[in-house]
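Write out the bound-state structure for zinc ion.
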Amino acid sequence: MQHHFYATSGFDRMAHFRDNDQEMENRFKDPTTLFVPVWNGRVFTSKDRTKPHFFTFEQWNKLGLKAPQLIYLGQTHRGNALAAVDISQIEELDPEDWFDDHISCVDLRGAGLSLSADDASIVAYAQTLLAWHKSTGFCGKCGSATLSRSAGHTRRCTGHTCETEHFPRINPAVIMLVEYKGRTLLASNPNFPEKLRSILAGFVEPGESLEQAVAREVWEEAGIEVDNIQYHSSQPWPFSSSIMLGFTATAKSSDLTIDQNELLEADWYNPAEIDKAVAEEELGLPRPDSIAGVILREWMAQNR
Ligand SMILES: [Zn+2]
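---
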């Protein structure tokens, strides 16, 4: 099984504990429990961004903040319980005042790559779950307030005739390397940094299979038909609460018709052309912690 960045097994989710209130309370106050703080979507690391910053219940109490809601993530292989805690109630956060001067409060996108894969997956998990709690305070069905249940893994509507159970939302997206006679399709879209080219991607729509989503997205964005659609691997992508479902596919022709609303440019490249363009700084490749980066580099290695 391929473990992408943000999806490692550096901890055990211990899902069977979540509905055991007594066990959860004990874990919460256990001096070995590690709290993973998130402030307005940002995570905490050492100054050099190589280690995440967790704190203990005692350190939490010293901060003098209102009692956190328990959001249990699981436990480390060393047996420390892990809990996510939102500290956005601090209005203006200067980590040096609130913690100490060895701590930074950073965007996960900026920190992800310098953390170990195990640590990055813990902070990404905390950040994604807390973002969902923030956006699910009210029931989408009846508008009543919702309350956290199962140690933060569901939210239940408080409307008496509703009581809908809400589960963390994950958005499925397909991402596909399309090949035609030893070349792959790389494209840029308006949201990319200049010179970045990547493989195509798009969200799965209701009522379609993953393979249909791959074929539709490639047709809509690049105007080409594909077959031989093969599943590759998947990666949780915390920045959009997505699960990226990776595929490879073979184009039936190389004649591109670009949808200018979706893509700025698209073209076919063989590995040597990619290497040359990267060396000449004409082309940037997707981040190595992304599934796009992994699938593309793997294809290049196999096709050199
Ligand atoms: Zn409701």
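---
The CA atoms of residues 70 and 266 lie 47 Å apart.
The longest strand covers residues 226-237.
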